[in-house]
DNA sequence: ATAGGGTTAG
């Protein structure tokens, strides 16, 4: 209304009241009136409608084609479907030729975005020009109404209207959308018969894109080769296909031959070929293409920049990627997401979460890609509080039932030791698929809920879903962590029979299962089945030897490992610890000097604890670097005193160095998880204490933490390098088996 | 009067 009033209220520039006096005079006033409207952008619908009504009433005599076209164009500019309807009434009243008015009205309605009205007009037409058919089909596809588009296309053929290059260049997208491969092939045949496949590059690229979407890059390439005059769009469509199907070498080759044929790449081309360079970790070509992109002036195109960013992140060149991101003027949802997920993939979780918060501050909406990446950042570092806040964001944006965000949450809660919460998320998912099931099974597995994991596995089978390699690993891990030895063996046999591809990791898990159960001979037998036994497999067997103190077998395995990997650090440490636990101190000294010669340094034992979203790091034996070390030591001493009252005795077999007994005790008291727990107790924030460790928890710490959980009446959850331990009221969820 | 290609995830 405002604009209407302004208009008649005497706007100085346009002087509308004067025009009102003039327009009885006909055409001159009409066109002046139009130029007035044209100078305005976006009038409210009600206002424009009134203006048109006024116009049409006073201009009944003005019924030439030219003027109706002009009026319709105005409606299109103003997106006024009611204006179109008014004009339609006047066309009818003035006896305007129907075969022309129909086409014009359909065209205008489509451009205003009202496909249903266009269809209504179309259905009332007796003669339809092919352009009208084509426009309708094209707009239906544009608005993702592929089904109706295909129906229109079929109707067109039954009405004996032969599709032309315009029809075909749009309809193929509808076929790929609906996976109508058979019908697509018939229409491809039609394109061949009409000679359009070869002569029209629009038809050609639509065909290439369609075959690409069907996953048939070979077919797409054959079409491309037949097209006479190839252009950017055509070749880019093929590059996209290769890139999305992971045929990255082909994508780069296609890009190179494009340059040879002097076809200029554009932002779309760069956006796709760079993804392939990233997948190939081909930083050479990646940088070369980056250069070309700058030279040809596409360095500031958002999609190309995003791909460039992704490429650098896949190649682990984090600094380069940050430089690219800084150049992006207005990063959108996708570019932020690419940055966040890439940082997580490069182990830069903290930075990823900082960027995520920046994105939120800039009011860029996250999507399920963004959220699952941010969540993965949290779960990698077991950042429970941070993760819970992101759960809040997931809910706020309505992704609670989404399988991607949901799997991220399941993984988070699983990795924070809360399989109950993981299960709650899992049960609200709108769609259960292999990946969300795998994530849930894995969460149960690492928390030692073997039965629950196996129940879910059964459900997966009952749902008719095909387990994949991650499923197999999760299920075996579940058996392994819950001491379900027989179940594990049976499942493994059935997986072998089902011809599921078993990887070294699966074998390593079984070797661990058998080995820890003391069935070392069977475990060793299993390794003979593995075609390319790797370090992990042998090390697993070796650590089982260590648990059961099988020195001879361990020495045999060690020789094998050192053949593959001379001076392997983990092996030497394991052997040294085995000698230490069997009292062979001279062999320990031998191993240590060997390590010293090779300049190997032991990976320091570390623990992390998150208090109020801040992560604190503790290193074994390091009593001074934390700013609150005094309070920590005070609390630790008191905790040890209290736990001794309840029967804690230091387990000196956990000390793998030959030293005096009191020194052994002192070294045990300085284990990183003990420091972390003492710190958490001092800070005294409520709820469970969550500790993250880089190595496995030792027997001494394990029995100490059990007692502390009783003394403090607090749950302590410890995620070590392999699994979870939930300490509650003097016992641990692992059943002392880890 | 009507037509074709792109970037992020478990």
TrEMBL record:
<dbReference type="InterPro" id="IPR046848">
    <property type="entry name" value="E_motif"/>
</dbReference>
<dbReference type="Pfam" id="PF20430">
    <property type="entry name" value="Eplus_motif"/>
</dbReference>
<feature type="repeat" description="PPR">
    <location>
        <begin position="129"/>
        <end position="163"/>
    </location>
</feature>
<dbReference type="InterPro" id="IPR032867">
    <property type="entry name" value="DYW_dom"/>
</dbReference>
<dbReference type="Pfam" id="PF14432">
    <property type="entry name" value="DYW_deaminase"/>
</dbReference>
<feature type="repeat" description="PPR">
    <location>
        <begin position="433"/>
        <end position="467"/>
    </location>
</feature>
<dbReference type="InterPro" id="IPR002885">
    <property type="entry name" value="PPR_rpt"/>
</dbReference>
<dbReference type="Pfam" id="PF13041">
    <property type="entry name" value="PPR_2"/>
</dbReference>
<feature type="domain" description="DYW">
    <location>
        <begin position="647"/>
        <end position="738"/>
    </location>
</feature>
<protein>
    <submittedName>
        <fullName>Pentatricopeptide repeat</fullName>
    </submittedName>
</protein>
<dbReference type="Pfam" id="PF20431">
    <property type="entry name" value="E_motif"/>
</dbReference>
<comment type="similarity">
    <text>Belongs to the PPR family. PCMP-H subfamily.</text>
</comment>
<dbReference type="InterPro" id="IPR046849">
    <property type="entry name" value="E2_motif"/>
</dbReference>
<dbReference type="InterPro" id="IPR050421">
    <property type="entry name" value="PPR"/>
</dbReference>
<dbReference type="GO" id="GO:0008270">
    <property type="term" value="F:zinc ion binding"/>
</dbReference>
<feature type="repeat" description="PPR">
    <location>
        <begin position="231"/>
        <end position="265"/>
    </location>
</feature>
<dbReference type="Pfam" id="PF01535">
    <property type="entry name" value="PPR"/>
</dbReference>
<keyword id="KW-0677">Repeat</keyword>
<feature type="repeat" description="PPR">
    <location>
        <begin position="332"/>
        <end position="366"/>
    </location>
</feature>
């Amino acid at each position: 209304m405002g604009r209407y009033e302004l208009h008649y209220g005497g706007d100085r520039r346009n002087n509308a009241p004067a025009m009102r006096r003039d327009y009885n005079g006909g055409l001159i006033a009409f066109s002046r009136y139009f130029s007035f409207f044209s100078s305005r952008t976006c009038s409210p619908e009600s206002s424009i409608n009134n203006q048109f009504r006024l116009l049409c009433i006073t201009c009944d005599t003005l019924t030439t084609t030219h003027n109706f076209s002009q009026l319709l164009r105005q409606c299109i500019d103003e997106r006024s479907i009611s204006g179109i309807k008014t004009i339609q009434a006047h066309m009818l009243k003035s006896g305007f030729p129907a075969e022309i008015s129909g086409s014009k009205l359909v065209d205008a309605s489509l451009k205003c975005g009202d496909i249903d009205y266009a269809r209504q007009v179309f259905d009332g037409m007796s003669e339809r020009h092919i352009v009208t058919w084509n426009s309708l089909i094209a707009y239906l596809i544009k608005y993702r109404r592929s089904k109706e588009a295909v129906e229109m296309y079929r109707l067109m053929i039954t009405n004996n209207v032969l599709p032309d290059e315009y029809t075909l260049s749009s309809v193929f997208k509808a076929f790929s959308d609906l996976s109508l491969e058979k019908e697509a092939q018939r229409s491809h045949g039609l394109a061949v018969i009409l000679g359009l496949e070869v002569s029209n590059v629009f038809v050609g690229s639509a065909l290439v894109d369609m075959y690409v979407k069907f996953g048939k890059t070979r077919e797409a390439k054959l079409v491309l080769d037949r097209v006479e005059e190839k252009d950017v769009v055509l070749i880019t469509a093929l590059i996209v296909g290769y890139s999305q199907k992971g045929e990255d070498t082909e994508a780069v080759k296609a890009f190179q031959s494009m340059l040879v044929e002097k076809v200029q790449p554009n932002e779309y081309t760069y956006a796709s070929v760079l993804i392939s360079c990233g997948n190939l970790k081909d930083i050479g070509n990646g940088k070369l293409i980056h250069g070309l992109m700058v030279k040809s002036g596409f360095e500031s195109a958002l999609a190309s920049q995003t791909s460039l960013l992704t490429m650098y992140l896949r190649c682990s060149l984090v600094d380069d990627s940050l430089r690219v991101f800084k150049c992006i003027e207005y990063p959108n949802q996708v570019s932020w997401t690419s940055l966040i997920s890439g940082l997580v993939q490069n182990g830069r979780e903290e930075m990823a979460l900082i960027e995520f918060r920046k994105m939120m501050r800039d009011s860029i909406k996250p999507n399920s890609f963004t959220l699952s990446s941010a969540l993965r950042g949290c779960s990698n570092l077991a950042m429970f509080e941070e993760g819970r806040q992101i759960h809040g964001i997931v809910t706020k944006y309505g992704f609670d039932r989404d399988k991607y965000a949901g799997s991220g949450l399941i993984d988070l809660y699983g990795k924070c030791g809360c399989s109950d919460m993981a299960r709650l998320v899992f049960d609200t998912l709108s769609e259960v698929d292999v990946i969300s099931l795998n994530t849930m099974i894995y969460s149960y597995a690492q928390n030692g809920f073997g039965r629950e994991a196996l129940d879910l596995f059964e459900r997966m089978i009952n749902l008719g879903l095909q387990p994949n390699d991650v499923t197999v690993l999760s299920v075996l891990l579940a058996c392994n962590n819950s001491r379900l030895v027989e179940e594990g063996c049976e499942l493994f046999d059935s997986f072998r029979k089902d011809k599921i591809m078993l990887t070294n990791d699966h074998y390593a898990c079984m070797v661990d299962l058998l080995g820890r159960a003391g069935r070392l001979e069977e475990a060793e037998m299993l390794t003979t089945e593995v075609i390319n036994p790797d370090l992990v497999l042998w090390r697993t067997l070796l650590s089982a030897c260590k648990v059961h103190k099988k020195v001879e077998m361990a020495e045999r395995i060690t020789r094998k490992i050192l053949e593959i990997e001379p001076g392997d650090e983990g092996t030497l440490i394991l052997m040294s610890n085995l000698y230490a636990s069997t009292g062979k101190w001279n062999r320990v000294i031998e191993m240590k000097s060997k390590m010293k010669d090779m300049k190997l340094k032991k990976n320091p034992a570390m623990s992390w604890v998150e208090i109020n979203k801040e992560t604190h790091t503790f290193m074994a034996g390091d009593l001074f670097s934390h700013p609150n070390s005094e309070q920590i030591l005070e609390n630790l001493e008191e905790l040890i005193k209290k736990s001794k009252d309840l029967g804690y005795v230091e387990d000196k077999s956990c000390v793998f160095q030959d030293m005096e007994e009191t020194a052994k005790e002192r070294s045990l008291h300085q284990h990183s998880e003990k420091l972390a727990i003492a710190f958490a107790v001092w800070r005294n924030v409520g709820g469970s204490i969550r500790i993250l460790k880089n190595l496995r928890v030792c027997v001494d710490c394990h029995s100490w933490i059990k007692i502390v959980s009783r003394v403090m009446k607090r749950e302590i959850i410890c995620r070590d390098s392999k699994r979870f331990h939930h300490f509650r009221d003097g016992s641990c969820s692992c059943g002392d088996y880890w």
